[in-house]
Design goal:
The chain has helices spanning 14-27, 51-61, and strands spanning 4-6, 9-11, 68-75, 79-86, 89-96. By secondary structure, it is an alpha+beta fold. The protein has a 3-stranded antiparallel β-sheet with strand order 3-4-5. A two-stranded antiparallel ribbon has the order 1-2.
Amino acid sequence: MIQTIENGNFADDAAARLLRAAATALYAQRGKFYPDKDYGSRLLELRPGDSVCAAGLARQAVNNIDGVYVKSAIRTENGWEFVLAVNNEERQVFIDYGHYL
């Protein structure tokens, strides 16, 4: 389960729920989710250095989540760091694919 922490407390407001939904969509491998083969992202298919493509693939993954827009993607050692606009507030999501790599 993905939790959002703000000021040391678990957050459960609308923005936090949207952020969790976006993180889940970014983490899930596209085509591997049985009920909806179009759910998730294809980020694991990228090679190192494909940050421009990563932002586009991340936007595709969160396309159906109203109020969420991917502003940027930065490759980390084991995954990605995303800057998202969630209801016009800037938030960050870190996705660690360490066990997939």
